[in-house]
Write a structure and sequence with these properties.
3 helices
């Protein structure tokens, strides 16, 4: 006991706190798809654009005002995204068996396909992050960097909760 009223310090026992992350359920399917073209509009977008390729999508609808490309699309619009150093090349249009105007070629490949609903930027970015940072890290596949990511949309995207698909090109981990 201190008579002078000085403060005495006592240190508590050391303990550990654990935090568990992950364990997310990420439904997917693997498909092998033949080669094809995406024909429509191809433009470059800044990689820092938080609404990836929004200008390209706006240009797609503006330049397709006579619906030539959309009429080729049937019930699905395909978009391919190829990352550059500071940009994203975005090609939006119809899936075709041969070149028809502004196109990119997509070779035969294996794809991991993920279904998603809606197009709210934050939710889409979080979903992509789960695919890249959790699904790819946890599985037996790696991204095939030689190919673009593909997104498959319904032609009618008026409903805020429309269903669409993300396709990531994959190959087996070595």
């Amino acid at each position: 006991i201190s008579k002078s009223g000085s403060t005495i310090n006592m240190y508590t026992r050391i303990g550990f706190d654990f935090s568990v992350k992950g364990g997310n359920d990420i439904p997917y399917r693997i498909i092998c798809d033949s080669d094809f073209y995406i024909c429509g509009l191809s433009e470059v977008s800044d990689i820092e654009d938080t609404e990836c390729c929004e200008k390209v999508w706006n240009d797609f609808y503006e330049k397709d005002s006579d619906s030539k490309i959309i009429s080729l699309c049937g019930d699905k619009i395909y978009a391919a995204y190829t990352n550059g150093a500071n940009s994203v090349n975005c090609c939006i249009g119809a899936r075709c068996n041969e070149e028809q105007g502004d196109c990119i070629y997509v070779p035969k490949s294996r794809w991991a396909c993920f279904d998603i609903r809606g197009a709210e930027d934050e939710a889409v970015n979080k979903f992509y992050n789960n695919i890249v940072c959790r699904w790819l890290e946890s599985g037996s596949y790696v991204r095939n960097d030689a190919l673009p990511n593909i997104e498959v949309f319904p032609v009618d995207m008026e409903d805020d909760d429309f269903a669409w698909e993300i396709r990531i090109p994959i190959k087996v981990k070595e």
